[in-house]
Amino acid sequence: MAHFCKLGVGNIVEQVVVVNNEVITDNDGNEQEQLGVDFLNNLYGTRDVWKQTSYNQSFRKNFAGKGYSYDQERNAFIPPQPYESWTLDEETCLWTPPTPYPTITDENKDDIYIWNETTKTWEVK
């Protein structure tokens, strides 16, 4: 199955839908994104902007979800920034905290950590 995202204002993902692979396969057996775009706009009677997203992240960095943004320059889907202090990892297009997540050891394996934006640290919940 192929997955497509409808983009709204600011290239924000509004919806993710599933399309049968047969719909996006051309006569030579190659997948063509435009076939899916055309199918969806015909189905809904619209001229929306659709982008294919990969469930296994084989292209466009991340599987898109509602609220993600599509960055045309990076050709990537980027999740919403969880905290102001987190920065975008250009390689993965995921947000990283200024302090790494704690290393899990036998002593803390049952701890649940949450981010404290005020102190910019991980705290045990």
Describe the structure.
This protein is mainly beta and about 120 residues long. The chain has two domains: about 80 residues, no CATH class; about 45 residues, no CATH class. The strands form four sheets. A three-stranded antiparallel β-sheet has the order 2-1-3, with helices on one face. Strand 1 and strand 2 form a beta hairpin. The longest helix is centred in the N-terminal third of the chain and has 12 residues. The chain is elongated.
Short description:
This protein has 125 residues and is mainly β.
N- to C-terminal distance: 39 Å
Residue fraction in strands: 25-35%
In terms of structural class, how would the helical and strand content be classed? mainly beta
How many distinct beta strands? Answer: 9
Query: Order of helices and strands, N to C?
Result: EEHEEEEEEE
Q: Any low-confidence stretches, pLDDT <50, length ≥5?
A: none
Strand order of the largest sheet: 2-1-3
SSE layout and pairing:
Blueprint: E1 2-7, E2 13-19, H1 33-44, E3 49-53, E4 69-71, E5 76-78, E6 87-89, E7 94-96, E8 113-116, E9 121-124
Antiparallel strand pairs: 1-2, 1-3, 4-5, 6-7, 8-9
Main attributes of the structure:
125 residues; mainly beta; 2 domains; three-stranded antiparallel beta sheet; two-stranded antiparallel ribbon; 9 strands; 10% helix
